[in-house]
Structures are given as structure tokens and as C-alpha cells.
Automatic annotation (TrEMBL):
Its main location: nucleus. This is BED-type domain-containing protein. Residues 43-60 have a biased composition (Basic and acidic residues). Pfam families: zf-BED. The keyword Zinc-finger applies. Residues 43-71 are annotated as: Disordered. It is found in: Nucleus. The lineage of its organism: Eukaryota, Metazoa, Ecdysozoa, Arthropoda, Hexapoda. Residues 9-45 form the BED-type domain. GO terms for molecular function: DNA binding; zinc ion binding. Residues 306-333 form a coiled coil. InterPro entries: RNaseH-like_sf, Znf_BED, ZnF_BED_domain_contain. GO terms for cellular component: nucleus.
Length: 497
């Protein structure tokens, strides 16, 4: 029943919070459309029909009788491929050990499935199926990347004395019409993390997947010196491959040419200097690596935040440590009973090396500020001092939250798997633009903004692949807008051509 029909039959009296029926002058509490429609169709059927008002009573949930059987879900027929896939996922995705297939309880659980499918799933067979699945997945990736330009992403993580080199590739799939990400290697490293060693592993993996090194368009990495050196070494290797290709092509052209001048042929000195034609010199001079070094945007953003926090700590040495100590004290048994009675959700203690965990801790504290003020009333003396947050703490937290919220949102946004160069550039620039309004009111925001501006140079300067991406992006380059300089236009066209 829309508002026009409602006004024909009823009037809502706001001061009494009641609805008056025009036909019987009876008043109803509130203005529930459900009750009013039922009243109109039960008591004033003729008027309801005139305005096409119908009421269909909902069937109560308890109307089912004992004779009526509840609807049964259709059982899915278990086939061998589904049984194998589920067993592999238990190990690969859910990280359960192979020994689970040797446990009696689990054997009893899957016994009927083994009989139905005719497959025996034990410790050895599970390993075999995981290996076969990995081979099938590798073959699928080979077909996906065949004759395609790809972006290479490399990083090294060290934890508890173990180092793992992670390598994945990005490429556009014409079938799925989106950017796909495939991890092609998680290799534990037992040698030094030098550029030479890392490059050998990368070259070996690319060979396993049938990826031609000439087809790598970008090499994305963090700002670590060894990884950057790896990228430059990879570029040099690409240059050597391209140079060999060019020399082979030019050599073929020279072999096909006939020497028409007999005098030149007779006077040719094998030991003399080789006179290379100018067109060949120009061709060799123009050879440049296909792969462009791209600095990881998220890692660069984290460096901006890290530098900003160091600057902030120069003037605010103890605030964050004191706030962290209060959160730790709130988790002690002294305050447990009152916190439960007030239903306060105490935030987790942050990890010192993870700034976003400090941001989340502060955000949650701001959200429960009123609840904490109520909690303070229950305690006094030393017990209160351990959890008391002063005005300077709340001021620090609000400034911290306002300054780092744009960075936190940008970090979350850039973690999506299908972020293109244009999306990244737009998000980065928008974050800096949004921060400008708060620079005068919040000193923390100005510090973060200045570091983002300084770090932008490494991200955007001399980055031809970014220029090429923006050149074909209609959000930045369209008729009537001078987004690029003439030099940048030329560089973008050369990269695309």
C-alpha cells in the first residue's frame, strides 16, 4: 500500500503515535502497514477493493502436521573426481597432515565414499593425488600463459630461520575477461639471497612453465637491494636475448644480399676492421629490455607510514607505548568481571612491527571510549591508574586515526588481485588529494602526506609501463585533455608499439 492509498483510508496522528481509520474512526497504535491492510480488508472490503488493496496472510511456521514430511534435500551423487578433489583440498587448502588418512576415525568416516567410488584413500595415495593435481595445474597454467605477455612479481620472506622465495605471474585472460594471478613457486632458499641465486631460481621456474623470458613485461618487487638487483640482472639477461635475436636477423639479411661490386669483393680484407652499416648500428643501439622494474606500491606505502611513525615518535615518544600497556592491563583478571558485565569488547594488543595492527587497536579504543569511561567508575587508586587514559592519549589517538585512515583504506584497496596500473595511480592520487583538507588541522597528516609525496618519485618517475597504461586509460587520456607532455606521449607510444 503506497502513500497515496494510505492517505485515502487513514491519517497518522504523530503526537499520539496512532493511525485513525477514516471509515470506522478507530485508532490503531503506530502505523504498521501489515495491520492496517488487514483491518481494511477485514472490516471495509468494499473500500479496499476500490483502491485495489489486498491482504494475504502469512502462513504460520507451525502449520505443518506430523503427516507432512519435511522437504528432503536432493543427494548429490559422489563421483571419483569429487572424492579425489576433496581429499587433496584437505591437505593443500586446509593444511591437514597426510597422517589423517591413516586415522581409524577418519577411515570409518570415508569408508562408504571409498566403496562408492572404488578409490582407496590412504597416506600414499593422498600424496600421489596431490602430485598429480599439481602436474595438472601446472599444465593448465602453461596453456594459459602461452604466447602471452606477463607481469612477474617476486618477494622473499624470512621467518623463524627459514627463507621462502615467492614468485607469481599476472596476465590478462581473454576467456575470463579479467586479470589472473597464478603462483608458480614458493621455494625455500638454502643459499644466500644474492641477485645471482634468485635469478637462477626465477629462470628455472619460467622454463618449467614454458614462459619465454622475452615475454616478461614487468618485474614487480619491493625496495630491497637484492631484489632490485635481481630485477636489473633479469633485464640484462633479456637484453642479451634480444641482442642475439637482432644479430641473427641482421646476419640473415647480410647473407641474403649479393655483392655486386667485384672490386669491393677482391679488395676485402678478412683481418681488417668490420665496417658495420649505419642502419645496423642504429638497430642495435635501440635494443632495450622489455621488462620494466616496477616498485611494489603497497610496500612503498608501508615505507611511507614507517618513516612517518619515526617522525611522529620524535615528539610523541611514550603515547603509543602507554596506550599499548593499558590494553594489556585491560585483559588482566582484575577487570574481567566488570568488562563482561558492561559487555566491553577490548581490542587486541598490536604487533609493534605491524602498523596496521596499531591502527586497528586505536580505532577500537576510540569506538569504546564511552564504555571505558563507565568502567573507570568501578575502580580507584592503583587499579584505576593502570587502565586510565588521559586527555592527551585520546587526542593522540584521534590524530593518529585521522592521519592513517587514508593509508589503511589504500592498503586494503591495493590488495585486490585485479588492481591495474590505472587503478593504482588513481587510488594513490585520490588518497593524497583527500589528505590535503586535513593538513593544517592535523600535524600527523602533514607528515604522512610529505612522505607519500617524496616516495611518489620512485613510483612514477621514468616508469614507461605506467605511462603506457595511463595512455590507453580513458580516465586519464581523452580528447581535449593534456594529461601527458609530448615527451611522455612519445615514451608511452614507444612502449606500446
Amino acid at each position: 500500500m503506497d502513500l497515496r492509498v494510505f492517505n485515502i483510508h487513514f491519517t497518522y496522528i504523530e503526537s499520539e503515535n496512532k493511525t485513525l481509520c477514516h471509515h470506522c474512526k478507530k485508532k490503531y497504535a503506530g502505523k504498521s502497514m501489515h495491520n492496517l491492510k488487514r483491518h481494511l480488508t477485514d472490516k471495509h472490503q468494499e473500500q479496499a477493493n476500490d483502491t485495489n488493496v489486498k491482504y494475504r496472510e502469512k502462513r504460520p511456521a507451525s502449520t505443518s502436521t506430523a503427516d507432512e514430511a519435511p522437504p528432503q534435500k536432493k543427494l548429490k551423487k559422489l563421483v571419483a573426481s569429487d572424492f579425489i578433489r576433496s581429499s587433496v583440498e584437505l591437505v593443500v587448502l586446509n593444511l591437514l597432515p597426510y597422517s589423517i588418512f591413516s586415522m581409524k576415525a577418519f577411515k570409518d568416516l570415508i569408508y562408504n565414499h571409498q566403496v562408492t567410488t572404488g578409490i582407496t584413500m590412504n597416506y600414499c595415495n593422498a600424496q600421489k593425488y596431490v602430485t598429480e593435481t599439481a602436474k595438472a595445474l601446472k599444465q593448465k597454467i602453461k596453456l594459459e600463459v602461452k604466447d602471452r605477455m606477463i607481469g612477474l612479481k617476486v618477494d622473499v620472506a624470512t621467518r623463524l630461520g627459514r627463507s621462502v622465495l615467492g614468485i607469481n605471474i599476472q596476465f590478462f585472460s581473454e576467456i575470463e575477461r579479467k586479470i589472473l594471478v597464478r603462483t608458480i613457486g614458493m621455494i625455500e632458499m638454502h643459499r644466500r639471497h644474492t641477485a645471482e641465486n634468485i635469478n637462477l631460481i626465477i629462470s628455472s621456474l619460467l622454463g618449467e612453465y614454458g614462459i619465454d623470458k622475452r615475454s616478461v613485461a614487468s618485474f614487480t618487487c619491493d625496495n630491497g637491494a637484492n631484489i632490485v638487483a635481481t630485477a636489473k640482472l633479469f633485464q640484462n639477461y633479456q637484453n642479451s636475448l634480444l641482442l642475439c635475436d637482432e644479430l641473427e636477423e641482421l646476419g640473415q639479411q647480410l647473407n641474403d644480399e649479393e655483392i655486386d661490386d667485384e672490386d669491393d669483393a677482391e679488395n676485402f680484407d678478412e683481418n681488417g676492421p668490420l665496417d658495420i652499416p649505419s642502419n645496423i648500428k642504429d638497430a642495435l643501439k635501440d635494443i632495450t629490455s622489455v621488462a620494466v622494474l616496477v616498485r611494489c606500491s603497497i610496500h612503498t606505502l608501508q615505507l611511507c607510514v614507517h618513516d612517518s611513525l619515526n617522525d611522529i615518535k620524535k615528539d610523541y615518544r611514550n603515547e603509543l607505548d602507554e596506550i599499548r600497556k593499558v590494553v594489556k592491563n585491560l585483559k588482566s583478571s582484575t577487570y574481567c568481571e566488570q568488562i563482561k558485565s558492561l559487555k566491553i569488547k577490548v581490542p587486541g594488543i598490536d604487533v609493534i612491527t605491524r602498523w596496521n595492527s596499531s591502527f586497528i587497536m586505536i580505532r577500537k579504543l576510540i569506538n569504546i571510549q564511552e564504555d571505558l569511561n563507565s568502567l573507570f567508575e568501578y575502580f580507584s587508586g592503583d587499579a584505576l591508574e593502570k587502565i586510565k587514559l588521559e586527555t592527551r592519549h585520546w587526542t593522540f589517538m584521534q590524530k593518529f586515526y585521522d592521519a592513517f585512515l587514508p593509508c589503511y583504506n589504500l592498503t586494503m584497496k591495493l590488495q585486490s588481485s585485479d588492481v591495474g596500473m590505472g587503478d593504482f595511480y588513481a587510488s594513490w592520487k585520490k588518497t593524497m588529494f583527500d589528505m590535503k583538507d586535513n593538513l593544517e588541522q592535523n600535524e600527523f597528516s602533514k607528515i604522512v602526506f610529505d612522505h607519500m609525496r617524496q616516495r611518489s618519485i620512485k613510483l612514477f618517475e621514468n616508469n614507461d609501463i605506467l605511462l603506457a597504461s595511463l595512455y590507453i586509460d580513458p580516465r586519464f587520456n581523452f580528447n581535449g585533455r593534456q594529461f601527458f607532455s609530448d615527451t611522455q606521449n612519445c615514451r608511452a607510444e614507444v612502449r606500446l608499439g
